[in-house]
Amino acid sequence: MTGARFALEDYIHFLKVERQLAANTVTSYQRDLIDYIVFLQSINIQSVEETKREDIFLYLQKLNEDGKSSRTISRHISSIRSFHKFMLRENVTKDDPSVHIELPQIEQKLPRILSLEEVNKLIEAPDCSKPQGIRDHAMLELLYGTGMRVSELIDLDVDDIHLSMGFVRVFGKGGKERIVPLGSKAIESCAKYIKEVRPHFMDNKQGVTDALIVNMRGGRLTRQGCWKLLKGHGLKANIQKKLTPHILRHSFATHLIENGADLRAVQEMLGHADISTTQIYTQVSRARLKEVYVKFHPRA
Q1: Euclidean distance between CA atoms 25 and 52, whole angstroms
Q2: Reduced to 3 states, what is the DSSP secondary structure of residue 215?
Q3: Closest C-alpha to 83, from 25, 148, 36
Q4: Annotated active-site positions, please?
């Protein structure tokens, strides 16, 4: 199915250059569509122009039989729709077989969060008598203090953080810039890291980097490295909940809303394009209030 492969390369280029999607998002689209094209080849579809609505349904049926969740199937449908829409626009095909294919109903799961006590235990877990501990403490303070994604944290450069003015410049999905305020704890820990630790790590540098958060060899800390450190400090803090890269972001938003923060302000700090995405945290807040009521009210 050479034509489809060629069209896919053009589509991936379009996502990277014109839509400027994040690398992880582009990779997700690419993985889904390669799987889709391989399936079409397996049912003897020789060119992308031959693809029919029924073929897409067969593929979705296969995903369902493979035990894929409704969320995963919904993501595949979105990838397929976007791909066929692009091919129609570029005159690769004359029609779009994915039109009107509906997304499955997705049960919205409330994000897992840490309690304030657990957040404090996690942030205090690094051993600040060691350079790595000072760096990790600053990293955790930044994640919880700003709600930024791990991918946004590791992309920060030194020039993006303005300690004297109390804010950090974050580049989110699609390169969209936002300004997020810094609390006193984050400012204090970052100042100590930048002054005492980062120069020491940069003495061991492998190449030149402007990265804010660096590893012991002076290179930019990777997403995997950050995740490994987070898990390690979670174990040290004896946190029983499953830690994910997003858990401090979820906790940041929920704790703000629980303490009366305006939903629009939280949306802006998180970098959500749609406020409906932010509203999930109001549900988390209500769920937690109900848990407290049931646990402590004598007539609950």
Answers
A1: 26
A2: coil
A3: 36
A4: 149, 173, 246, 249, 272, 281
Among the listed residues 110, 151, 154, 107, the one whose alpha carbon sits nearest the alpha carbon of residue 251: 110
**CA–CA separation, 85 vs 98, rounded Å?**
8
Q: How far apart are CA 54 and CA 56, in angstroms?
A: 5
Indicate the helix (H) or strand (E) that contains 168.
Answer: strand 167-171
287, two tokens:
């769920």
Strand 167-171 versus strand 177-181 pairing type: antiparallel
pLDDT value for 3: 56
pTM: 0.66
Q: Which of 13, 18, 14, 31 is nearest to 175 (CA)?
A: 18
Burial (CB count <10 Å: 0-12, 13-18, 19+), residue 125: buried
Predicted pLDDT of residue 112: 86
The SS3 assignment for 10 reads helix
Q: What is the pLDDT of residue 2?
A: 52
The terminus-to-terminus CA distance of the chain in angstroms comes to: 63
Place of tokens 């992308």: 48
Query: What average pLDDT does the structure give for the chain?
Result: 87
**Cβ contact 212:170 at 8 Å:** no
Q: What is the pLDDT of residues 202-226, one digit of tens each?
A: 887 766 679 999 999 888 999 899 9
Among 131, 136, 148, which residue's Cα sits nearest to residue 230?
136
Contact 75, 28 (CB under 8 A): yes
How far is Cα 121 from Cα 234, in angstroms, rounded to an integer? 8
255: which residues sit within 8 A by CB, 6+ positions away?
113, 116, 119
Distance CA 179, CA 222 (A): 23
